[in-house]
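for the writeup, i need someone to sanity check this before i put it in the appendix. the sequnce is what the collaborator sent (i think, or maybe the updated version? ugh). structure was predicted straight from it, no edits. if anything looks off just tell me and ill rerun, i have time this weekend
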Amino acid sequence: MAEATLFLSQSRYYSPVFNSAIFDGPVRVYFAQHQESLALKVYFRLKERLKSIGDEVRYSGQHLFVMLYPSDESFELSFSGAAPKIAQELLGEDFVFGVKGPLEDEAYESLYAQAEKVLHSWRQEERREGVSASPLD
């Protein structure tokens, strides 16, 4: 975990505006402190959507970073030229979602669906490789 977080904090996706984070298994949500209620809402909705696959990918070593940029300017420093409100890119073996400013509730559904797709692909990859879902197996 520390290695992935260090890698992220030294990447172009990390911003000084992020002074708070929620870490839970493979999901990491970064945000500015004044976005705490939004971040908690995003986290709990993500957790609900992903609960059926979360345990299987928890031990994969891969991470899904959700970066809640508080403004268009902070978003564009990390995702230059990105037009969509939600950008997604690979960072090594991890996946980064960048969210540009606050969105309408319906727009977050796209984030949840994309995150679910990424975690499903990790689960399928683990099954193909025969990786155990639990370190105790």
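Confidence is low (pLDDT under 50) at residues 131-137. The beta strands are 20-24, 27-31, 64-69, 86-91, 94-100.
thx in advance!!
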